[in-house]
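S1.2 Input.
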Amino acid sequence: MTPRTLKLRAGLFAVATVLVAALGAYLLFGRGPLPIQTDLLAMLPATEQNPLAEAAAERLAHANGDRMVLLVESDDDARAKDAARALGKALATHKVFGSVTAELPPFDVARMAAPYLLHRFFLLTDADRGVLAQPGHDPAQALAQRLNEPFVTGVGVPLADDPFGWLQHWLAQQPWSRSPLLPEDDLLVAHRGKATYVLVTATLDGSSYDDGVQHRALGALHDAEQQITRDYPGIRLLRTGAVFYAAAARAGAEHDVHMVGWISSLGIALLLLAVFRSPGPLLLAFLSTAVGVVAATTVSLLVFGKVYLLTLVFGAALLGEAVDYSIQYLSARANAGAQWQAGTGLRQVRPALLLALATSLLGYALLGLVPFPALRQMAVFAIGGMGAACLSVFWLLPALLQRPAQPMTPALVRGARTLQRALATPAHGWRGALAAVLLLLLALPGWTQLRHDDDVHNLIAQPAALATQEARIREVTGLGNGSQFYLVQGKDSEQTLQREEALETRLQALADDGRLGGWLGLAGMVPSQARQAQDHALLARLFHDPARLRQTLADAGFRPAAIDAYLAAWPGTPLRLDDWLKTPLSTPFRPLWMGCSAQGCASLVLPQGSENGALLADAAAGLPGVHLVDKPASVTGLFGRYRGYASVWLLAAVLLIVPVFGWRYGWRRAPRVLAPPVLGIALTLAALGYLGQPLTLFHWMALMLVLGVGANYAVFLHEGEPHAADKPGAMYASVLLSALTALLSFGLLSLSSLPALRDFGLTLLLGIAFTALLVPASRPEIGASP
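S1.3 Output.
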């Protein structure tokens, strides 16, 4: 290939790279906010066979996702309330908040009962229903009990409108009556011991996962918090909301990207300078890597439209593997000396690079089979990046490396030669089999200590301070997290509510036993028409004799006008779901109604005070149309299943590589070439066992890459050694250089703030190290040579 041809190809490749970079820049910066996905839910796979259940899980997760929930705490009641008012006013001055709620508009709590007066004869509690159903029920006794009830401080019903207390009892069981937060001085307040807690909420004018919204909202809260802590000493502020977790996740990812990117770049730069003794190879190696990263980012944005946090950090680590291809070409140039010709060097390394690329892409392709959006994006990112980096070696570097280069640093080559011989010698002859047996015996105790942990909560670490505050807020306010809920389905709204009532009967039994704190469901607020008809029929027994009922009320001291008004209200009208959903009181509970479609209707019931999945599942067992949706448990189960499949995938990957190596190296030699990555995987598993690391799906996915990267090192050594026979140790030096660059990047992932990437990085750190040390054993003839 002539220099002119090489330059023409390089020019075409450079133009293509610039176009890809321009497209990537547009996708990244030209369409509004940065498409960086910090929503943890979006990284998780779909786990429910019922699409409606999956939609419900996402709906609940985002129902309050763009809202800050703040609790102002103080041992001084007046100071807590004043500070909450000041906090609300301070936040309201910032445009980043669409609405801020601290002080409530003045209202009469008793007026909340007014919308239900028309339906009072259709709404009974279980207790009142049981009493009314008893033979010989005496209404005078119920009336006397009502007259002697203590003064109602919550949502009350005027005595004249509800003389027997049936509506009052029903309202007392509603969520707004049971809430620990009560209206007090136009604020929502809870008391715990000496402490007073005042609720302040702020709805963002934008998404919690928008970087700009995050910065403005957190900055506004920081300023407001400083103001109230200065003006009201002793105030404590608790907070929760998706915006806080999203910001923490973004900050952690940015820290990891900087740590991995800068440290690995610096380390790789120093290594390349030490080995090649010139800044030229360093710059070209990073140029090749930059081409890979640009292509990977552009392809990921084209395929997915956004970039996940896991991919960002993983992309920084990809530097260490993408640079391998340019290192092999630079090593061939250094070993050729004065006889260097760019085209000849390219033909020399092409088989090794293509074979290495194929094994790496195989590992990433298997990674992409996992139905986990973040892992699939990592696979696409790697495939695009590795492919572009390898193409840059074929099309770009030859035109830029026309002149010969000085050889590698002699001391490093001699050191690599000494290490290579030391590691190859035990693998010669019968000693190789014995060494393999000893290694496996050494690994055996580690294997026996292996265990698994598929808990999805280990995927991404939540800041302890935020988790503690969220738990305290939930305890004080009674707000749930919506990660577990029942999906209730029926052919229409009536059947859906009836099925929900059957579920709530079981939940009430659990609550009575103290095993459940309660639940939140629509049927408790809007009973089915069948239930209301039953309640109305029970009351009809009393109203069928209005003269007797009038006398009962008169004997109790009710005025004739009040009695006339009460009797005239009979029979009333039933409460209907569609009408109730239009009332202001239903606003906080509307997300519980999923609506109706051609397939039927659906509602949600939220259990509270228990996260025992087995207990909650038993409550729904055998009930038609009722299904417990437990998103964390579902994802955990999915991880467990795919972690179980991973060993099969790993074996399949090995079996796919065997015929490729058999074709290239012959069937007798292929097992030795494949032995380093396979033994490296075995030793990595043993080391994880010794370290007490429970295996997760991410450990197994990393082992897929250990197989691909380890096979690369074996290929580099076997393909390059014949071309560098006059420079013993030079080829292994380039393999060690590739391994060290990978350790500087992938290995740094073991320090990531994301547990999933820590597992990934630690496995690669161990696997790459073991494989690089085992590679010389695949060529024992080197150890046997004088």
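S1.4 Remarks. The mean pLDDT is 85.
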